User: Fold Tyrosine phosphatase family protein from Blastococcus aurantiacus.
Amino acid sequence: MDASGLRRSRGALPGFANSGDVGGLPLPGDAAVPARRIVRANTPERLDADDLATAEAFGFETVLDLRSREEVLARPHPLAHLPGYRALPLIDPAAEAREDVSRYRTLGGIYRSSLQRNAAHIAAIFRALATAPRGPVLISCHAGLDRTGMVVALLLDLAGVDRETIEADYAAPPNRPHAPTNPAGPERRDGSPIREMLAHVSTAYGTTAGYLRWLGLDDATIGALRERLDR
Assistant:
């Protein structure tokens, strides 16, 4: 998919500075990811009544909030009132406290190490995705870039989206010019962090399915994850 097509996928949720539906990304066999299956987004500081009504009308069956407990308490998610909302922090605070992330020279290095360091939390996120109702799923974090970007990239890679497209989707500009950035790490500028993370997955686990098996997911759960993005 070209950059203009990726830009058109942005703005799935008005009022969310960095939202996008992964629908339309090409799959093997001339297929494409169906729309309204997975939407990625930041967590806005506030939503006006019209934007909140639009987000509610999207029909999200599941909302996975990947932020920390502290972030959730400081800024509740605007869709936390929905029955399918779940707070599932990607970052394990105890494991993170033992890790000096400043030793990694790239954002991709942080992503790569996070796959091991936060393994139990990542496993819980993918199990929740696999068992979620079939309707639309919103995956969000603070800025909709790093934690959300990692999870969506792994899901797309599992489904068979080619990696250049995954990198382009990750790096596509947000739908508003002043999207929030991650204050805790290097600013994302291109697809290289996802490229580095997925290359590590291939080297260490063979495939994303291999990584998910290492996390403890069985083949039935992995199959259910693939089916989330099929026709």
Remarks:
- The longest helix spans residues 192-205.
- Confidence is low (pLDDT under 50) at residues 176-187.
- The beta strands are 20-21, 26-27, 31-32, 38-41, 62-65, 85-87, 137-140.
